[in-house]
């Protein structure tokens, strides 16, 4: 079983499923800090790029599905690439009570710079690239210590793992399968000023999930850390609306 971190809030709300959080490519799990206390539920973080691999979307979806079964009941929360992994996991297990996808999409069509990013990761791996990717991923200013962690997190990662993940995500299209999720409760959150994903990507994703609601926040690609209070409030509302005591 892959390594995860678990944060349990001091005043856990009874009956609320855990949040199984899946970060984006090269994104420090710090983006999920504070969610446990803000939502009153356990937060389980899957730092998939720190795992030994494989790092393709299908394999990662299978691993996260196993984690969902281990920590069930859960709501999957995926950011960016993590959204693709979360949806892939939801397609593999019935132990998921809902899914939240943040600044992602059903595929990477129209994601104009993915091939350029892959080329830069291959040829320019290092602090300058890490900082550029981190800064492109936010629109609003962050606390200095958080920004520093986002800038430096890729130093702990293997470049080849990042390349495998990005190439696999580029070649993955979930559109033909998302109807299989039926009326699984889903929340699609998107930052209006996202420079990586357009609002059209979010709308397409929401339209592909029969049980989905789309919420647009006034931030960039990483709402959990740019607007943490507003993002947590949307999660609390979503969790409260789940059937069967959610």
Automatic annotation (TrEMBL):
<protein>
    <submittedName>
        <fullName>Pimeloyl-ACP methyl ester carboxylesterase</fullName>
    </submittedName>
</protein>
<dbReference type="GO" id="GO:0003824">
    <property type="term" value="F:catalytic activity"/>
</dbReference>
<dbReference type="Pfam" id="PF12697">
    <property type="entry name" value="Abhydrolase_6"/>
</dbReference>
<dbReference type="InterPro" id="IPR029058">
    <property type="entry name" value="AB_hydrolase_fold"/>
</dbReference>
<dbReference type="InterPro" id="IPR000073">
    <property type="entry name" value="AB_hydrolase_1"/>
</dbReference>
<feature type="domain" description="AB hydrolase-1">
    <location>
        <begin position="19"/>
        <end position="233"/>
    </location>
</feature>
């Amino acid at each position: 079983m892959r390594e995860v971190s678990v944060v349990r809030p001091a005043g856990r709300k009874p009956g609320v499923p855990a949040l199984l959080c899946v970060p984006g490519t090269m994104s420090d799990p710090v983006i999920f800090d504070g969610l446990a206390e803000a939502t009153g539920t356990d937060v389980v973080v899957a730092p998939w790029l720190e795992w030994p691999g494989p790092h393709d979307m299908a394999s990662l979806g299978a691993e996260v599905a196993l984690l969902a079964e281990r920590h069930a009941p859960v709501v999957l929360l995926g950011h960016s690439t993590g959204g693709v992994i979360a949806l892939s996991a939801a397609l593999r297990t019935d132990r998921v009570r809902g899914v939240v996808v943040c600044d992602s999409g059903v595929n990477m069509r129209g994601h104009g710079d993915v091939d350029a990013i892959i080329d830069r990761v291959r040829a320019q791996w290092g602090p300058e690239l890490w900082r550029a990717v981190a800064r492109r991923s936010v629109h609003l200013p962050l606390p200095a210590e958080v920004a520093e962690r986002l800038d430096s997190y890729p130093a702990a990662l293997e470049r080849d793992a990042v390349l495998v993940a990005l190439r696999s995500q580029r070649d993955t299209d979930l559109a033909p399968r998302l109807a299989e999720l039926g009326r699984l409760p889903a929340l699609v959150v998107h930052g209006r000023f996202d420079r990586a994903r357009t609002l059209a990507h979010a709308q397409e994703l929401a339209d592909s999930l029969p049980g989905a609601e789309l919420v647009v926040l006034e931030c960039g690609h990483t709402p959990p850390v740019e607007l943490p209070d507003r993002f947590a409030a949307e999660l609390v509302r979503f969790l409260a609306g789940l059937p069967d005591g959610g």
